[in-house]
Amino acid sequence: MQLSELIYTYSSAMLAKYGEKVFRVGVSTGITCPHRDAGGCIFCNPGTFRGAYQDNNLNIEEQLEQGMAILRKNSKAKSFIAYFQDETSTAGDLEYLADLFNRALQYPGIKGLVVSTRPDYINPQVCEMLTSFSQPVSVELGMQSIHDKSLNFLRRGHSQADTARAIELCREWGIETGVHLILGIPEECFGDMLATIRWVSNNTAIREVKLHNLVVYDGTDLAKLWQAGEIKQMPVDEYIEILCELIPWIRSDIVISRLFTSNILHNDLAMAALSGNKTKWMNLLRLKLLEKGYKQGSAII
Ligand code: SF4
Fold it and tell me: How many domains, the chain?
């Protein structure tokens, strides 16, 4: 049995929605995250948010042209969604952003937009702008955890109440919403992670989830804690065990579009805890789910 028969993957969701594979092409507004300017999240290494092909010095059309050409070559991709994935993509002058998003939507082959942002950068004016286009625009929120103690540790600069408010605002404006979650935050026990997953599952406005294992990247304040022996990075086999126990609690109509943190380059720290590669980890997860008789949503009555 394939992993896509055990979880609702991004590819399955795109096939159901568009009748074909649709690839996300990473692009940037070129605006630095204001929270990073103010010190930033403890784990933030902005280089790791981008695809290897991304060049933020290009204008939006050039970014799309370059990214789409590489995806076409590597994956025989034909249709695309422009994915504003780095920094905080709703931060900045709204007229500038509206023009940028509109130009991305007008670019040949682009079927829609996904805009990744922080909960505290969703407000009625942003929602009005995001719903002003004729093609769909969805939002990804950096939620990470429902526990304020964890958000404080991560130095997110927002609370769970801010996240809940942003999700409700997106629901009111009819904006499809996904959330990023981090698993393996120091001091979070399995029960804490399960509580976050169950909160997400119970929120019918959430249509997509991206799961990340907390990775210690070079040059971050998290790396300093790791080097001082104050935190550990969860080994990948432990992370897979936890994933396996959490996936059954995720509502079956939520798209799980990421299972492991992306862009784990081999010059980053703590690779010893993350040996192997994503293909191997996905297969281990598939085997574990099969062994336990689990699938997405199977624990929800
Ligand atoms: S919100 Fe995102 S880009 Fe901004 S500091 Fe945090 S992780 Fe970095």
Answer: 1
Q: Is 35 in the pocket of ligand 1 (CB under 6 A)?
A: yes
Tell me whether residue 70 is in a domain: yes
Contact at 8 Å (CB) between 175 and 137?
yes
Q: Is the CB of 119 under 6 A from ligand 1?
A: no
Give residue-wise pLDDT tens across range 72-83: 998 888 899 999
* Any domain includes 299: no
- Residue 101: which domain range? 3-292
Distance (Å) from CA 41 to ligand 1 centroid? 6
Contact 135, 112 (CB under 8 A): yes
Is residue 33 in contact with ligand 1, taking CB distance under 6 Å? yes
Pocket lining: 140 vs ligand 1, CB cutoff 6 Å: no
Query: pLDDT for 217-251, tens place per residue?
Result: 888 999 899 989 999 888 889 999 999 999 999 99
- Work out the pLDDT band at 117, boundaries 50, 70, 90: very high
CATH of the domain at 100: 3.20.20.70
